[in-house]
Amino acid sequence: AQSVTQLDSHVSVSEGTPVLLRCNYSSSYSPSLFWYVQHPNKGLQLLLKYTSAATLVKGINGFEAEFKKSETSFHLTKPSAHMSDAAEYFCVVSDSGGYQKVTFGTGTKLQVIP
Amino acid sequence: NAGVTQTPKFRILKIGQSMTLQCAQDMNHNYMYWYRQDPGMGLKLIYYSVGAGITDKGEVPNGYNVSRSTTEDFPLRLELAAPSQTSVYFCASSYLRLGGVDTQYFGPGTRLTVL
Is it true that the peptide bond before B8 is cis, omega within 30 degrees of 0? Predict the structure, then answer.
């Protein structure tokens, strides 16, 4: 069985300050992990993904995430928030077992204050 | 490439009506998915397909049906619309690579209201 928990439903940061969006997962197999972003009234777009290569993953728009197996975490970070980062972010886990199921977290809404 | 396309963008249905949400992809992906997104609930998987002729239920399949006669198309059918089906529906597609599901590519969504 697999699951994913996004620890904050809302995060508010000032423009130019760091962003941290937290995600914990559980998986019976070696998981693939993804972060997607959804801007208002838009579809979802991939930010970055972890697929058992380097544990520090760099994505688009300056975002990165670190896979920590011991902590079962895959937190998303960015050194300096821009106004355009305001959106909803989803953490996603996919087992590499025989049943390739995809499970979404409930999302974290990021607000960036000017 | 157009990517994943969905039609219609918006639809209002009356209770008991039926409709089909269309989804097509031109990336030759084997996996396709239907999700619904309710406010504050994230995305819930309705149905998915691992290839033409093969479909399976996700977390919330009740009230919906799907078919996959071609690699490109994956329509979602609502037979008897109910207010609980008011939601935004997203279609997605991906490759299945060795080791698990790869990046999902999402359509722009269909906003459905049932009154």
Answer: yes
Burial degree of A94 (CB within 10 A; 0-12, 13-18, 19+): buried
Q: Which residue has the tokens 């290569």?
A: A53
Q: Looking at chain B, which residue has its C-alpha nearest residue A32?
A: B100
Q: What is the pLDDT of residues A10-45, one digit of tens each?
A: 999 999 999 999 999 998 777 889 999 999 888 899
- Pair A27, A2: CB distance under 8 Å: yes
Q: Which of B26, B72, B74, B25 is nearest to B49 (CA)?
A: B74
Of B43, B99, B108, the CB nearest to A104: B43
Q: Which class for B19: exposed (0-12), middle (13-18), buried (19 or more C-beta within 10 A)?
A: middle
> Maximum CA pair distance of chain A?
47
Tell which B residues from 34 to 73 touch A, by Cβ distance under 8 Å.
35, 40-45, 50
The predicted pLDDT at position B108 comes to 92
As to burial, measured by CB atoms within 10 angstroms (0-12 exposed, 13-18 middle, 19+ buried), residue A74 is buried
* Extended beta strands in B8-86, E state: 10-13, 19-25, 31-37, 43-51, 54-57, 64-66, 76-78
